[in-house]
């Protein structure tokens, strides 16, 4: 029974189980000789029963140790102890891509293409050394906190057959990324790793695997016979084309090498990153060409004005008045609407904003003037009224001073003939001649 604290090979102490797979369990351990943290992968005992498996695996471990690539996990040691075979590798700080996908669901196209490019570079380094991974899946892709990717578990699935593995979850994981030729019983090649990496990219973009089923055999047969469901509509066509070609049923129709797939994936990631940095709906901004009118200005700067400086105008040097000598050189571009010239040695002052006149409230002096005018007008009215009254009284007095003859009417004669006194009175007063009996004995005015 393997448990924490067990020491393998008298050197590697097991501290914590961190992962499990179809080939065995992975432990975080300590190299007690060098005092460093390592990853120890313990192979399943059933694999050791296969004839020649231990020798082949030991030879591939030596070959893997010769790969010097930042995207390939370093292999330190291989050994067997207590009927257990183990592989000691570099311990990578970070999470497996499978954990990231289970947490976030799916990745952006730019992020997916960046990870695919790194994984393809690592596969190319292994393929150049004659090693086929045979088990590319998110659980074997470790992502460091800085975003770099490391590919682990090279070559350990060479002798493993899907139907012979006993761990159901591991079988399902392996069958989900198996190439059609491997599912058909053919040998794995570099093109098989390219297909598996295409399945990983499909899962990162869509959030699910291309094929699911109740058993590993059913899933493997779907890889051979069926076409994956289309990727989501928001995936760019360039990214969709990369994944579709990697998932071709025919190995010859896939990308010719892992390096070729890495190149196109890196180009797509760069293009997507550049597009995401630009504002939506706006084209890329390009610097405007320099204009001759925007030449450097040697005069004093114009402060407080948004008007650009104008180039100096040549002064008259000879000839008649008003004629100026034009310096040689390319002709200046004529402005469609000439602006007033401001000499460089006398910068125009900024225009002062004129205050807007506002209505002032009436002062106390104004009110006093109105009061005085009202009093004077009233006095004039009173004066005119007095003059009119005085003139009216004078007229009455003049009428009263007119001499009027007063006489006592005398009783007339029998034939009513007026007397001389009565006649004089009527002539002066304008009455008709005759005798007025009603006024008899009265004074007539």
Continuous helix count? 12
Question: What would you give as the CATH superfamily of the domain at 95-274?
Answer: Transferase(Phosphotransferase) domain 1
**Shape estimate:** elongated
Category by helix and strand content: alpha+beta
- Secondary structure: helix percent: 25-40%
CATH fold title of the domain at 95-274:
Transferase(Phosphotransferase), domain 1
Query: Proportion of β residues?
Result: 5-15%
Protein architecture, described:
Among the domains are: 10-90, Phosphorylase Kinase, domain 1 (2-Layer Sandwich); 95-274, Orthogonal Bundle (Transferase(Phosphotransferase), domain 1), CATH 1.10.510. The longest helix is centred in the last third of the chain and has 37 residues, at 364-400. Mean pLDDT is 74; it is low at 157-173, 283-311, 316-335, 400-429 and 437-445. The protein is elongated. The protein has helices at residues 45-48, 53-65, 97-104, 109-128, 168-176, 180-183, 190-206, 216-225, 237-246, 258-277, 364-400, 420-429, and strands at 7-8, 12-20, 24-31, 36-43, 75-81, 84-90, 95-96, 141-143, 149-151. By secondary structure, the chain is an alpha+beta fold. The strands form two sheets. It has a six-stranded antiparallel β-sheet with strand order 1-2-3-4-6-5. The chain has a three-stranded antiparallel β-sheet with strand order 7-8-9. It is built from twelve helices and nine strands. The termini are far apart. It comes from Paractinoplanes tereljensis. It is an enzyme of class 2 (transferase). The chain crosses the membrane at residues 369-392. Its EC number is 2.7.11.1.
């Amino acid at each position: 029974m393997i448990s924490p604290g067990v020491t393998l090979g008298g050197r590697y102490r097991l501290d914590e189980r961190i992962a499990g797979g179809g080939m065995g369990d992975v432990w975080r351990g300590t190299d007690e000789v060098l005092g460093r943290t390592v990853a120890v992968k313990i192979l399943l005992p059933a694999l050791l029963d296969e004839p020649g498996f231990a020798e082949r695996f030991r030879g591939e471990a030596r070959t893997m140790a010769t790969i010097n690539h930042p995207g390939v996990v370093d292999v330190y040691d291989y050994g067997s102890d207590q009927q257990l075979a183990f592989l000691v590798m570099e311990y990578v700080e970070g999470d497996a891509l499978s954990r990231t996908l289970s947490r976030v669901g799916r990745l952006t196209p730019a992020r997916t293409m960046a990870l695919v490019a790194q994984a393809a570079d690592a596969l190319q380094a292994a393929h150049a050394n004659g090693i086929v991974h045979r088990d590319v899946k998110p659980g074997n892709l470790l992502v460091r906190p800085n975003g770099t990717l490391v590919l682990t578990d090279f070559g350990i699935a060479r002798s493993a057959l899907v139907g012979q593995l006993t761990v159901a979850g591991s079988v399902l994981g392996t069958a989900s990324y198996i190439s059609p030729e491997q599912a058909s019983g053919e040998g794995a090649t570099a093109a098989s790793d390219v297909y598996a990496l295409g399945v990983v990219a499909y899962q990162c973009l869509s959030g699910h695997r291309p094929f699911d089923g109740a058993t590993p055999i059913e899933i493997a047969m779907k890889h051979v016979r069926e076409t994956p469901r289309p990727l989501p509509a928001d995936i760019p066509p360039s990214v969709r084309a990369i994944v579709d070609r990697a998932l071709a049923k025919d190995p010859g129709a896939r990308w010719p090498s892992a390096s070729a797939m890495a190149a196109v994936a890196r180009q797509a990631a760069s293009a997507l990153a550049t597009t995401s940095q630009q504002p939506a709906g706006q084209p890329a901004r390009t610097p405007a060409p320099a204009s001759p009118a925007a030449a450097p200005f040697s005069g004093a700067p114009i402060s407080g004005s948004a008007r650009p400086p104008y180039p100096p105008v040549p002064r008259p040097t000879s000839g008649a008045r008003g004629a100026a000598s034009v310096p040689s050189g390319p002709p200046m571009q004529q402005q469609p609407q000439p602006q007033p010239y401001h000499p460089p040695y006398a910068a125009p002052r900024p225009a002062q904003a004129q205050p807007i006149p506002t209505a002032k409230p009436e002062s106390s002096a104004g009110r006093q003037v109105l009061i005085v005018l009202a009093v004077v007008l009233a006095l004039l009215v009173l004066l005119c009224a007095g003059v009119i009254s005085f003139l009216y009284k004078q007229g009455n007095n003049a009428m009263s001073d007119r001499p009027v003859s007063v006489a006592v009417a005398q009783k007339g004669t029998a034939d009513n003939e007026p007397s001389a006194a009565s006649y004089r009175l009527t002539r002066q007063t304008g009455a008709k001649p005759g005798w007025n009996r009603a006024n008899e004995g009265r004074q007539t005015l």
